[in-house]
Amino acid sequence: MSRVKNRRLLSSPGCAITRSMETKKIAVMQKLLKANDAVADQIRRELKDKHIFFVNLMSSPGSGKTTLVEETVKKLGKRIKVIEGDIQTTLDAERLQKLGIQAFQINTGPFGGDCHLEASWIRTAIDELGADGMDYLFVENIGNLVCPAEFDVGAHMNVLLISVTEGEDKPLKYPLAFQVSPLCLVTKIDFLPLKNFSLAKLRENIRKVNPACAVVEVSAHDGSGIDSWIEILKNKPGMNR
Ligand SMILES: Nc1nc2c(ncn2[C@@H]2O[C@H](COP(=O)(O)OP(=O)(O)O)[C@@H](O)[C@H]2O)c(=O)[nH]1
Ligand SMILES: [Mg+2]
Q1: Which domain holds residue 81?
Q2: What is the pLDDT of residues 204-233, one digit of tens each?
Q3: What gap in Å lies between CA 106 and CA 148, rounded to an integer?
Q4: pLDDT at 12 exceeding the cut of 60
Q5: Does 7 map to a domain?
Q6: Residues, Cβ < 5 Å to ion ligand 2
Q7: Residue 241 in domain
Q8: Is 2 part of a structural domain of the chain?
């Protein structure tokens, strides 16, 4: 939010003092992002050395992230640990713990309600979870298509989920989330055919903002596309770059 405000202030003419204050704020932000990236790189290297594939799931609230992780555990087995990000509640971590896996919940609400996760928090969560008995680590990032895209959490692969009920225009409105993700899962395809939704249009809009983004259609409810998703996970793309 504040970064959007910064951009607006910077572009308004005749406001030199505000402009210099905002320039300083941006410089601080760049320093924070640089520090975040250094921790993220360290996490990525460390997990690679331990042969643990780390996936960062991003989407709007309700697109099906937790449900997808549940289905993934059922198909891939229990050598999966999950870091859950939400403003409030431990509901998602509890859902996953019921499947017999370790899940660590991060709540940002008590600390100002940040709408993204940062690498240093992931570092702490990994230390708490421990690396034993883990082949895969998932982060379910905080639900929105804006802030999580700006912060590298150290994942080997970012995955963007978009459900068919969100509309085809979202890649054009929130391009960064799609640009930092080599894989986009179109979720809830069991809802097709929806009267006002075109899968072809959504694919075209994803291609416009990120031509390299692979698109896989899935449904956690009827199982469509889940085998393709599991196959991608087994290949661990991005881990050896
Ligand atoms: N029809 C349908 N509903 C789904 C699917 N995946 C998730 N849902 C439902 O969407 C809602 C939100 O899912 P959830 O996994 O909690 O979303 P999250 O907020 O992204 O973690 C729940 O009611 C799920 O049952 C799907 O593939 N098809
Ligand atoms: Mg969830």
Answers
A1: 18-235
A2: 999 999 999 999 999 999 999 999 999 999
A3: 14
A4: no
A5: no
A6: 65-66, 92
A7: no
A8: no
Section 166-189 average pLDDT: 98
User: Is residue 10 domain-resident?
Assistant: no
Q: From residue 20, give the alpha-carbon distance in Å to each of 9, 12, 16, 23, 25.
A: 10, 12, 6, 5, 9
Residue nearest to atom 8 of ligand 1 (CA): 64
Residues forming a β-bridge with 140: 57, 84
Q: How many domains does the chain have?
A: 1
pLDDT the model gives residue 4:
35
Average pLDDT over residues 43-53: 98
Q: Residue 103's beta-bridge partner residues?
A: 82
Among residues 168, 187, 153, which one has the least CA distance to residue 59? 187
Instruction: Please tell me the predicted confidence (pLDDT) of residue 9.
Output: 34
Q: Which helix (H) or strand (E) holds 81?
A: strand 80-86
| Shortest-distance Cα residue to atom 1 of ligand 1 | 188
Q: Answer yes or no: are the C-beta atoms of 84 and 240 closer than 8 Å.
A: no
Residues with CB under 6 A from ligand 1: 59, 61-67, 143, 187-188, 190-191, 219-221
Question: In this structure, what is the dihedral angle of CA atoms 33, 6, 149, 201, given to the nearest 10 degrees?
Answer: -160
State the distance from the centre of ligand 1 to the C-alpha of 221, rounded, in angstroms: 8
